[in-house]
Each structure stands twice: as C-alpha cells, then as structure tokens.
Design goal:
mainly alpha
Length: 139
Amino acid sequence: MADKADLPASMQKLVTAIGRPVTSEDLDIYGRLQAIQDESHRLRTVLAAWKNQQAQDRGLREKYATWLMIAMGAQIAVINVVYILMGCNVLTFEPWTARTFIMAVFAEVAALVFVVVKYLFTPSGDKILYLIRRKRSEK
C-alpha cells in the first residue's frame, strides 16, 4: 500500500481516520465473528420454523380434539336416549341386540378417547432440543 505521504491531503485524513493496518489476526477474529453470526442466524431460523410448526400443530390438534369430543358427546347422548326409550318400552329390541349395541357404542367411545389421548396430546417438541444438542456436541 502506498505510504501516507504519497496520498493527497484529503485521502491522508481518511487513512488516518480509518486507523491501523489490518492484520491476519484481525481477519481471523472477523472470520470467527462471521461464523458465529451465521450459526446464530441458522439457529434463529430453525427456532422460528419450529415455533411456527408448533403453533400450527396445536391449532390442528385443537380442531381434531373439539370435533372428536362433539362426536363422542353426540354418540353418548344418542345411546342414552335409546336406552331410556328401551326402558320405557317405546323401542323394543331383543335383549342381546340391545346389549351388543350399547356395548359397541361404549367401546367406540373408549377407542376415541384412546385416540385423542395417544395421538392428539403426545409431546412433539423434544425433536428440536435433540437437534440443538447434537449441533452443540459437534463443536
């Protein structure tokens, strides 16, 4: 680089204002800082996507749970009405048919409860923690 004395006066002030020459140590520090910023950006991107996915997942689970609860409530209401009508002799069925019908509906309700508990309320947020831990262990 040209000596400061070889530069015009306006450029000499600029060179003085900038400061000392850049060393290889400065470049190393800048490279490490850039790598940290890149990693931070990647992590923020992953966390933002995870947060968005969790919000969508919660909304979908809430919709399914609501509709399944409404369906179970309707089935229980219908079976209770049929049971009451059978008790009042408004509806007549053979005893084995009535027992089979009532048991089948309660088995279906129990299966729906099982589906709701097992699949709609499972923890799914631990995968992101695994990815973060794995990324940290690579360093």
